[in-house]
Amino acid sequence: MHEDYFAPASERRRRTVDDLRTDYPSLEFDAERDAADRAEASFIQASLDEFIARLNGRTPSAAFAWDNGSRERISPHPVYQREVYRTRSFDDLPTLNRAMLRTYPTPFDYEATAGSTVYTDRTSGTSGAPLTVYYSQTFMAQYLHLNMIKVALAGGIEGIGRRPVFSVRITDNQAYKGGVVIPNPLDLVGLSVIHHVDVTQGEAFEELARLLADLDPEVVIAKPNLHKILLEHWEREGAEAPIRPLMVVSGGAMLLDELRGRIGGFFGCPVISAYAISEAGYLGSECPRRHIHLDETVHERFESVPVEGAAEDDTARGELTVTSMSNDCMPLVRYRVGDLVDFTTESCACGRPGPLLRELRGRTTIVFDLGNGFLLSPTRYMDMFKDNPELVEYQLTQKQRRSFHLGIELRSGLAAHEREAALVRIRNTVEAGMPVPAELTLEERVFEGEGAKFARFRSEVTA
Ligand SMILES: [Zn+2]
User: Fold this and answer.
1) How far is the CA of 9 from the centre of ligand 1 (A)?
2) What's the CA-to-centroid distance between 187 and ligand 1, angstroms?
3) How far is the CA of 84 from the centre of ligand 1 (A)?
4) What CATH architecture does domain 3-360 belong to?
């Protein structure tokens, strides 16, 4: 293993989970999962070794073979039981998208992992109605514990693992209220903490600043819109960065250069974009040249395919697909990630081999600016589909600074009173998320499919 990637063992300072929880009693710790992850330690280490070997160009990416073994591995899953998956060559296989998966009551047979623990999660619902995803224990273990280590390594950050707390992930997802602490089963790095902030509460910013100053993590992680809200608050207050991390990581959506520059200036460290989706975990992250290197040590193959519904002569755009078989309970074959990309298999200017993304064009999320420093992040509406089972699709458009239009598509076959109740509930949820009162008009409509270009959140307000 490359020596400089991790701090020497003699310089690693550590805190135990119990010790941290005496200061932060609300932090949740899942002892059962920790034990299961520790049982996978040698597998996690082997995955990391493979990643490092690939990073250093020691093992070239092996051509992925679509053979009998691959066919057998996907055969228990309903979505792959069509004839086409048994007979054709890889290049003739159809692509798969999220909408297609939703047409199956259960697209995957998660018991295919033969009794080992299965974890479920749901996609966020910011880019399509949510989908339940399943992770096998081994897949989950390497994803959970190597994700941020890989981001650091690919980003050229050296000497990680010195501080007692490795990372703090900041989220506004209410499922993490109270926070979570996760130890690294290999002890290569310190503790990972997930911290929930409610940005509508003024004291949340100060509480976060105190937590960061106290834990002094090497890595701070958040989605771009949350980074933006935090940064603008601290800038308004004239506050200085509470800590100097080794890197700040932005994930979940595209990071615009202007915001990247401001975050980097504030924290005084590199800002690195990580690329992941709920359905497949870590896909890749940026090198020092800011190209996103795709991780073929976990996933078998990446391709760029024509965008669905694009004009035939529009060859400039491609959509990324991933073929990923290592998650036994949910293997993905030519799965459309839903992002427009500039993809290449050529080597990068940084010297590392492809495949990589020279540019990630899709997946922008916006933050609505309601004036006077009031910002609204669409992640406020993450639970919209979960809380409103009648909802098929919606679109929130900012028409003027404090005037919004809400388009709603409800499930067909609802009785009139159910329909009315759902509309009132959805309207209330949207209004409750607004940081200041805003006008809201409502319209029931039908959305035509959800192509790569569909934007659930739009603003017609120009700066
Ligand atoms: Zn590179």
Assistant:
1) 29
2) 28
3) 36
4) 3-Layer(aba) Sandwich (3.40)
pLDDT over threshold 50, residue 452? no
Dihedral class, residue 161 (left if φ above 0, else alpha if ψ from -120 to 50, else beta): left
Q: Quick one: CA dihedral 105, 109, 115, 119, positive or negative? A: negative
* Most confidently modeled range among 139-143, 331-335, 352-356: 331-335
If you count them, how many residues does the chain have?
Answer: 463
Q: Summarize pLDDT for 129-182 with one digit per residue, the tens.
A: 567 788 888 898 999 999 999 999 999 999 999 999 999 999 988 889 999 999
| Ligand 1 center from residue 55 Cα (angstroms) | 10
- Residue 25 CB burial class (10 angstroms; 0-12, 13-18, ≥19): exposed
Q: Where are the domains of the chain?
A: 3-360, 368-459
How far does the centroid of ligand 1 lie from the alpha carbon of residue 320, in Å?
18
The pair of three-digit structure tokens given for residue 452, joined into one six-digit string: 């790569």
Dump strand ranges (E) for 345-456.
356-360, 368-369, 375-376, 391-400, 403-410, 439-444
Contact 246, 157 (CB under 8 A): yes
The alpha carbon of 181 and the centre of ligand 1 are apart by a number of angstroms equal to 32
Closest CA to 166 of 323, 371, 17, 38: 17
Name the pTM for this structure.
0.79
CA distances from 231 to 122, 147, 259 (A): 28, 24, 9
Please, are residues 282 and 155 in contact by the beta-carbon 8 Å criterion? no
CATH 3.30.300.30 for domain 368-459, yes or no, is yes
- Measured in angstroms, how far is the CA atom of residue 296 from the centroid of ligand 1? 14
Distance from Cα 290 to the centre of ligand 1, integer Å: 7
Q: Which residues make Cβ contacts (< 8 Å) with residue 108, sequence separation at least 6?
A: 77, 78, 79, 134, 329, 330, 331
pLDDT digits (tens, 9 = 90+) for 192-218: 999 999 988 889 999 999 999 999 999
Contact 376, 433 (CB under 8 A): yes
pLDDT digits 0-9 by tens, 87-113? 778 988 999 987 788 778 889 987 776
Categorize the per-residue pLDDT at 341 as very low, low, confident or very high, splitting at 50, 70 and 90. Answer: confident
Mean per-residue pLDDT for 302-316? 67
- CA angle 313-318-320, nearest 5°? 155
pLDDT at residue number 61: 64
